[in-house]
Amino acid sequence: MEVIPSNTTQRLKFRALEPEDLSWLMELENDPSHWMVGDRQLPLSRAAFRAYIENASETLEQAGQFRWVIECTEQNTQVGLLDLYAFSERHQRASVGILIQPIHRGHGYAKEALNWLIDYASNVGHLHQIHAEVDAENTQSIELFKSCGFENSGVLKDWLRRGGRFVDVWQMQRVL
Fold first, then answer.
1. This prediction's pTM
2. How far apart are CA 140 and CA 143, in angstroms?
3. 65 phi and psi, to 5 degrees?
4. Do 157 and 170 form a contact (C-beta atoms < 8 A)?
5. For residue 92, is it left (φ>0), alpha (ψ between -120 and 50) or beta?
6. For the chain, how many structural domains are there in total?
7. Are 21 and 54 in contact (CB under 8 A)?
8. What is the dihedral of CA 88, 176, 140, 11, to 10 degrees?
9. Helices marked H in the chain — which ranges?
10. In angstroms, what CA-CA distances link 74 with 9, 12, 79?
11. Residue 168 lies in a domain
12. Cα–Cα separations (whole angstroms), residue 124 to 61, 131, 155
């Protein structure tokens, strides 16, 4: 019999986005310091976030992505977001994204969440591998992924533009 992992760990709970998350999600996603790894350079509207939350109930298979809110059960508060995206059913793989709010960093939440996601991806998503693109200068994220069994499987040279220069991106991969 297949065992489906819980949606909790010792300190964290993982759940879908709810309408009540709107203001928190806007604050987190519209923070310009989080834009350096993506293509978006402008804030999104409340209406755009509302529509996103309304459509967030689709499954990984339906939407090709799924986002969890990471909640700290001790504080009963949201601490970050966890994503599977670029899902390929045929190749049984997906990309990973994780964002912990700056005020909640340094407590091990990212590692706990990433280990939960590895278990979920393997046992529920039936994925063969997951991967993340990590700014080569983000040593904390590189160490996080390494500590969870990811390996650097390649480098994208000059992949991200930061100010007047370009930085490399590491392809961090874990075969499950």
1. 0.91
2. 5
3. -160, 160
4. no
5. left
6. 1
7. no
8. 100
9. 22-29, 46-55, 60-63, 109-123, 139-147
10. 12, 8, 11
11. no
12. 12, 17, 30
CATH number for 53:
3.40.630.30
What range does the domain containing 84 cover?
12-128
Asked whether residue 25 is domain-assigned, the answer is yes
| N-term to C-term CA, the chain | 19
Burial track 111-143 (b if 16+ CB lie within 10 A, e otherwise): ebbbebbbbbbbeebebebbbbbbbbebeebbe
Residue written as token pair 């590895």 = 118
Q: What is the pLDDT of residues 80-116, one digit of tens each?
A: 999 999 999 999 999 999 999 999 999 999 999 999 9
Instruction: Tell me if 84 sits within 8 A of 117, measured CB to CB.
Output: yes
Give dist(CA 76, CA 106) in Å, integer.
18
Closest C-alpha among 21, 23, 71, 20 to residue 46: 23
